[in-house]
Q: What sequence folds into this?
């Protein structure tokens, strides 16, 4: 497996798009993988080819490094998980202290599938947009969880696979700043215009920070990060 080659878990959201730009600035060969898991905001899947095409225009080196993309259908997992992201349920806090948008085991499942693909493609690094600082209460976004998963994958594949999480310690405002540092205004404009974060799948309402309902937790986090970054 090549340590100079990475597979990015890419949903076409703000975080994964920033991570993809980060990977393209560091690795010689970069591929992407997405998942159709029955998400209610499946519109993000429609944005994937648009973001990928636009990224190739940000930097000529990125265009050369960006390789194959694959979407894996695991829609039965969404039905099993039965969360507010995979069913028509209210987005709210639950009695266990976790938001109803928590899809149990989602990142673990994603990483297992991605690792199998990376193994076959000879890609030594997995890159994900998990974040502990701004995370929405999801235990599978913690670096401690990902360290354990990384070790399990290394043992299970008998390969030195690495899981990179460049946003792990960043606030959402700092994530906007990272995009600016990586690709300047063209990358920031791309993220605003083409990426999708809104849990409701709303691409009819355009805000300064991008498209979305403006009311769900994902929109709130993205808006607040934008405002803090612009005010800095």
A:
């Amino acid at each position: 497996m090549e340590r100079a080659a990475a597979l990015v878990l890419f949903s076409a959201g703000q975080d994964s798009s920033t991570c993809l730009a980060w990977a393209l600035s560091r690795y010689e060969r970069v591929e992407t993988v997405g998942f159709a898991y029955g998400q209610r905001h499946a519109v993000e899947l429609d944005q994937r080819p648009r973001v990928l095409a636009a990224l190739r225009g940000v930097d000529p080196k990125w265009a050369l490094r960006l390789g194959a993309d694959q979407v894996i259908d695991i829609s039965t997992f969404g039905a099993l998980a039965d969360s507010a992201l995979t069913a028509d349920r209210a987005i709210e806090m639950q009695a266990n202290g976790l938001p109803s948008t928590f899809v149990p085991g989602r990142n673990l499942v994603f990483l297992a599938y991605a690792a199998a693909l990376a193994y076959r493609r000879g890609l030594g690094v997995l890159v994900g947009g998990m974040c502990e600082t701004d995370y929405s209460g999801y235990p599978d976004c913690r670096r401690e969880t990902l360290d354990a998963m990384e070790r399990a994958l290394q043992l299970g594949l008998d390969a030195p696979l690495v899981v990179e999480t460049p946003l792990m310690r960043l606030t959402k405002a700092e994530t906007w700043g990272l995009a600016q540092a990586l690709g300047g205004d063209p990358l920031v404009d791309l993220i605003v215009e083409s990426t999708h974060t809104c849990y409701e799948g709303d691409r009819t309402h355009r805000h300064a920070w991008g498209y979305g309902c403006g009311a769900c937790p994902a929109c709130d986090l993205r808006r607040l990060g934008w405002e803090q970054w612009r005010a800095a």
The two ends are 41 Å apart (CA to CA).
